[in-house]
Amino acid sequence: MKLQLSALACASMLALSQQTFADLSSTVNLTTDYTFNGVSQTQNDPALQASLDYGFDNGWYVGTWASNVDFAGEDDTNLEWDFYTGKFMQLTDKVSLDTGIAYYTYHGDDDVSRDYDYPEAYAKLGYSSDLGESEVNGWYSWDYFGQGGSHYIMMLAHTFEVAEGHNVRFSVDRSTSTNKADYSWDDKKSYNHYRVEYMTSLNGFDFNIAAENTNLDWDNADERVVLSVARTFNL
Question: Structure pTM?
């Protein structure tokens, strides 16, 4: 169950929420594994995901995102459904800032699913240059996974274009619990996640191939390759 792992952004945070949107749009994504900070949320099985987002001209946006999940054992939770709102700001020609708040909800098991619900604040600082896009991302929850303890994630990432329409992204992030008594990973206060991915688009579809790993000794958090294909619709 998810009490064993660091819960988003992808993805969790929310990779989709950290972009600006043109009015109303929806994205549907099919992936071979839903991993969050390197830990599978579907027991290494595929996931179907979808979002609905609305962006305002002044940079504000609101959205929702959902995916199937599987925490195994006797936990019948099968759906994660998130909500978020934030604002994207272009501070200079090269520097951008995206800040917002998200709320994660879980469904499928009447006894435990809603106990997992929790809020999270996030921020992304971006820097564009001739060498690509660099990012410093942060997420913070004061009631992580409904356990009452605080938790934060810090990420460094860089994306560069290897050829027109072909991009590679490197990222490293660290998930940390502020109190192991509230939350830990096999009695660890924190763990690291590494990911490299290739991204391209063809005929309106976005393709992603990612290789990732963590320093956790878990079958659902070891080295893996994840494939996904997505399509965005402007509504």
Answer: 0.89
